[in-house]
Amino acid sequence: MFSHRIKLFSLFGFQVWIDASWLLIGALIAWTLAVAVFPNSLPGLAAPTYWWMAVLATIGLLFSIVFHETAHSLVARRYGIEIKGITLFIFGGVAQMAGEPGSARAEFLMAAAGPLSSLFLSGTLFALSAINDGHSGPPTIGAVLWYLGSLNLMLGLFNLVPAFPLDGGRMLRAALWAWQQNIGRATRIAAAAGNGFGIFLIVLGTLQVLRGNFIGGMWQFLIGMFLRTAANAEYQQTMAQRVLADVSVAQVMTPDPIAIPPELPVSEFIEAYVYRYHHREFPVARDGVLLGRVGTKQVAALDRSLWLRTGVSDVALACTPEDTIAPTAGILDAIRQMSTNKRSHLFVIHDGRLIGVLSQRDLMELLSIKLELSLDRNRPASRRRPSWTKAEPS
Ligand SMILES: [Zn+2]
Question: What SS3 state is found at 196?
Fold first, then answer.
């Protein structure tokens, strides 16, 4: 997701990264603070002073986001979910989780920790600002603390909006999940709220732009677009994981795969197998025992004049554990194995014998069928045949 990011530091064992997009937005925020926000709230100071305040406030903003994400991460760790790291990017921060929360309670507490930490930080910063002003501390420090206090207040409140995948939306999903015991339906409702809030921000942003507030309006517009995309992506991912969770490799694989005898000449392999079945790669096996894999890549590397005299076993590659999987393995593990090792298919091995092949095409078909079935089941009966259509003759 993030292609240009730099590691900043590590906090409680969580690696904190900063994406290039955040540096851009950080610079923009610092500039706005130095030329507009602070000169307005505290007039009459020298320009370099405003710049120092702005840099300080931008660094404070960065730490406010890290504080928020660390709160999420600490609760996640408490519930045994691995955190791959915290990344700051253009729309704030994200704690990248390796798994999904196992219970509604875990998800609710994990989501609530972020906004609560921001509200807590906001109160602390407002109090510090008041103490500073009460003891006639430097007004510049008071202004920076006050600004950071209001920023954390906004961060906390905005994230409480019940629009998935904002924290409030995750809390809503967890509450619905606990109430109705159906995570699919809970995700659908929370994602619909996220989509709706995204549209609201897009409309609001467009109106702002038309009224002349270009930067503020564009900003709302972009956040709205981002929310809608994220809500849909998260919804699809949750549904895919849900419908695939209890499927095993054996249920989806293509059984009794075409296997190439090792002594077959390459020329015959091309004629009788590659041109006929259009697979890029085939297993090489004798009496059901997998010996290796061979495909068009290995054949293409061989001089054409040698095709008649060379056996398939001479060009085949050996199979490693990355190429094979057990029939009892879960389909989600198979997908993970394929994506980490960049494989388009896996050979299914049982008791040392090749019993099937699992290909990406098998997975796509399974997913589309499963989704179709689950969507039909979740749809209310009345919607399947709208009342205004004529009943079909039976
Ligand atoms: Zn959050």
Answer: helix
Cα separation, 146 vs 169, whole angstroms: 28
Distance from residue 61's CA to the centre of ligand 1 (Å): 14
Distance from the alpha carbon of residue 68 to the mean position of ligand 1, in angstroms: 6
Residue 372 burial (CB < 10 Å; 0-12/13-18/19+)? Answer: exposed
Tens digit of pLDDT for each residue in 339-354?
Answer: 778 888 899 999 888 9
> What is the domain extent for residue 343?
249-370
Residues 148 and 264 in one domain: no
Domain boundary among 197, 215, 244: 244
- 3-state SS class at 260: strand
Cα of 132 vs its chain's centroid, Å: 42
Distances (CA, A) of 363 to 234, 239, 338: 19, 15, 11
Whether 362 contacts 252, CB under 8 Å: yes
90 lies in the same domain as 127: yes
The answer on 301 and 190 residing in a single domain is: no
Which residues fall within 8 angstroms of residue 40, CB to CB, at 6 or more apart? none
Distance 363 CA to ligand 1 centre (A): 33
Highest mean pLDDT among 39-43, 82-86, 303-307, 346-350: 346-350
Same domain, 240 and 320: no
Would you say residue 181 lies in a domain? Answer: yes
Neighbours of 328 (CB within 10 A): 10
Q: Give the total number of structural domains in the chain.
A: 2
Is 322 designated active site?
no
| Pair 160, 20 in one domain | yes
User: Is there a domain that residue 381 lies in?
Assistant: no
Cis status, amide bond into 255, omega within 30 of 0 = no
Please compute the mean of the pLDDT values over residues 162-185 and round it to a whole number. 90
Containing H/E element for 310?
Answer: none
Catalytic residue among 69, 107, 234, 281: 69
Residue 325 three-state SS: strand
- Residue 388 C-alpha to ligand 1 middle, in angstroms? 44
Predicted model pTM: 0.68
Q: How far is the CA of 127 from the centre of ligand 1 (A)?
A: 23
For the ranges 6-10, 56-60, 203-207, the lowest mean pLDDT is seen at 6-10
Same domain, 239 and 300: no
Supply the CATH number for residue 292's domain.
3.10.580.10
